[in-house]
Amino acid sequence: MSRGLLLLFSALLLLPAAEAQDCTSVLTELRGFTSPLFASHSEFVQVKQDVLLLLYSRERAVCSTALTNFASRTLEYLKTMDASFVLLSSSETEKHREGVERAIEAEEIILEMESLAAELGPVAGDAVFAAEQGRRSLLLASGMFFERRAEEAKSTRERLELLELAILSYGAADALQAKNLAVRRQNLEERYTSDMEKASRYLDSAVSGLRIAEGLSTSFPGFIDAYGLARDAIAELRRAQEIYALHSEKEKLIQVEESLSRAREIYSVTRNRILLLFGVLSAVLTSLAVYIQSRILSWEKDSYDCSLGNELVGD
């Protein structure tokens, strides 16, 4: 009987140890974790300090499962936000998008931290609150950064991309600016789409006309039609050029310039041929006029001589 009680008592003593975990590893990693975020956003420093306080207030070897998991989720959260900050600090727009997405993903980790904090006390609750505030702070800062960059952007396409990132950042932070920017971006996108469609029609029409003109430019009277087609193409290309320049579409501007060069060449060649044709026709007509005039003068002279001879004979 006493042996059975002893075994039961031993089992009861082992139960807490079964629920406890060694948190030395996560404590060491969390204590050594650092990030450039800490210099610009104090909320992340507070998260780290609050969780370290929880870990130091207990024996390192007997941390509860909830505390160990909470510390692990906190470390994961800090690493995710650090990665987000690094990506947002990049000069590449695609990395900016990935950085915002990382910050958005961190919300799931915060929700896990919140569910674990319920049994860990107010300090854990403070850490969760600071984590959410830090996430929102970074997203708001990113939104303002992208919005400012959008105002400075020369290319409309780049401006649209930056406004989209600003909207995404503000929206993830539940900021009112997201709705206002969404309206601005929609208006800009509609105007941009309309302008690009108009410029594309001008460019396509000009290229089509040039293709026909190239086939006609070497024959007569085809080069006369080619001259008109090249002249019209130049006018359409200039309209397209104005629109693409307005939106800083560099690749399209290069394409337009190449087509303009072809159009000017065809225009110049056919114009010279038309001028030469007019010159030849003018010379022929002038020669014909001179010949006709000389024949008229000769006829008048012959008529006069004939008339004078008749008078002399009559006398």
Topology overview:
Blueprint: H1 2-19, E1 20-21, H2 24-32, H3 37-40, H4 42-56, E2 63-64, H5 65-88, H6 93-117, H7 122-152, H8 156-172, H9 177-216, H10 222-246, H11 250-314
Antiparallel strand pairs: 1-2
Helix pairs in contact: 2-5, 4-5, 4-7, 5-6, 5-7, 6-7, 6-8, 7-8, 8-9, 9-10, 9-11, 10-11
* Count of individual domains: 2
First-to-last CA distance: 185 Å
Query: Could you give a short account of the major beta sheet?
Result: 2 strands, antiparallel
Principal-axis shape equals rod-shaped
Counting helices, strands and paired strands, the structural category is mainly alpha
Helical content (DSSP H or I, runs of 4+): over 70%
- Calculate Rg over CA atoms: 43 Å
Mean pLDDT, to the nearest integer, reads 85
Tag the structure with descriptive keywords:
1% strand; disordered N terminus; two-stranded antiparallel ribbon; single chain; mainly alpha; 315 residues; 11 helices
